[in-house]
Amino acid sequence: MRAIVSVFLLIAVTGCGGTSEGPPQHDFIEDPPLWQDYQVAYAETINLAEFVGIEFQAVEEDTRCPTGAQCLTQGNARIRIKATTPRGDTILWLNTDTTLQTSTLFDYYGITLRKLEPYPTIDPQTGSSTIPLSSYVATVFVIKAATPQ
Known about the structure:
Low-confidence stretches: 3-20
CATH architecture: Sandwich
CATH topology: Tick-borne Encephalitis virus Glycoprotein, domain 1
């Protein structure tokens, strides 16, 4: 009788996905490390190691010269990022034009805007190059710039 009960318990535990090896495995990193490029979609927040959060809040300007157009300057896209650490929130502005601020520090960390996609193109039917906000994705590089004293 004990053997039958043991077999039923084993089948029930196995069938429910239970194991004695700890919590279930997943295919994502809970706190990705710093010192890497990360893609952040418009209105998205990514949570990194050391309780650092990066939120892509706004595209405040996008005057980049559209592909296929002839422009006097390359233009610029400026985005607003909210960076969060255990010590509080900081609002940051980053630019795609390398003659302007593409990197900055917040708390003990640093961030660089590597690129902003999509790149503007001219719509042949309308002649405009409007990009829906929901289409924007920023690639940022986040580092730990200093160690608290």
